[in-house]
Design a protein that fits this description.
With about 270 residues, the protein is an all-alpha fold. It is built from 9 helices and 2 strands.
């Protein structure tokens, strides 16, 4: 008579596995505090846009951009990454860099365009949502040096930077032309987020790595340069970044064609 087989005893999880699982379920205060501050800045931008205080709304979006860039680095420096933090950050980004810039742009200049105005704003919101969803599903499968499509904080900076530039009287535009310029910029930012153009991510730069002395001088010069005229300098920098992905893409295509048609060496 055959004895029934005993089920194999499952090995108990190691301490390292338990720690990793606990870290995924954990909620850490420090990085999530930065994420909450970024979420508040995005909500504050919406409120200010509803009150027709567009310069404050634009500045709030830039503040959210700075805070959003800090939460991930703080989590990595303090080794407090968690699945909760990742999801919370995505929801915060959708508010601060998806809904807020679209509403600011619509209230600022596109309201008189009727359905064309809110359709452009919706294209931007949809682009931000699709961009964040694709980013979350492609984590670990793409080149970390480049983003696939224009990142949503940079897209928000394009829209907010233009609003800030006009409100600060650094750029004088005819009201009728202003509405269509805002329309085109919002539409471009929304569509650029869902393209495959590679935009440099800067993730290969770590704060713990030593840098040469000239890098510190360059950082100081950058702060001085930005502070000389924040709306103009910031908008110009993000316009350059918002176009850089297409140049990288064109260079890659040209390089691929050269490698394809290059004759073999004898």
């Amino acid at each position: 008579m055959n004895m029934p087989e005993q089920p194999e005893k499952q090995s108990e999880p190691t301490v390292e596995q338990q720690d990793r699982e606990g870290r995924r379920r954990a909620i850490y205060l420090l990085p999530n505090a930065f994420t909450t501050a970024a979420l508040f800045a995005g909500f504050f931008a919406v409120v200010q846009a509803m009150n027709a205080k567009f310069e404050l709304a634009a500045i709030a979006i830039f503040a959210a951009l700075v805070l959003d860039g800090m939460d991930g680095r703080v989590a990595r420096l303090t080794n407090t990454q968690s699945a909760f933090g990742e999801q919370y950050d995505s929801l915060s980004d959708m508010t601060s860099f998806g809904v807020a810039p679209a509403l600011v742009a619509y209230e600022f200049a596109m309201y008189d365009l009727g359905r064309w105005g809110w359709l452009a704003a919706f294209v931007y919101v949809a682009g931000a949502a699709l961009r964040l969803a694709r980013f979350n599903t492609n984590i670990g499968t793409t080149d970390k040096r480049f983003f696939q499509g224009l990142p949503s904080p940079a897209a928000a900076a394009l829209v907010a930077g233009f609003v800030w530039l006009v409100q600060d009287a650094r750029l004088v535009v005819d009201p009728e032309l202003l509405a269509w310029l805002m329309f085109g910029l919002t539409l471009y930012a929304g569509m650029a987020m869902v393209t495959n153009a590679p935009f440099y991510s800067g993730k290969n730069f770590t704060l713990g790595r030593s840098v040469p002395f000239w890098a510190i001088l360059a950082l100081v010069a950058t702060f001085v340069f930005v502070s000389s005229n924040p709306p103009l300098v910031l908008f110009s920098l993000f316009v350059i970044y918002g176009l850089s992905g297409w140049f990288v893409w064109a260079w890659r295509l040209r390089r691929a064609k050269q490698l394809t048609f290059k004759s073999p060496q004898d």
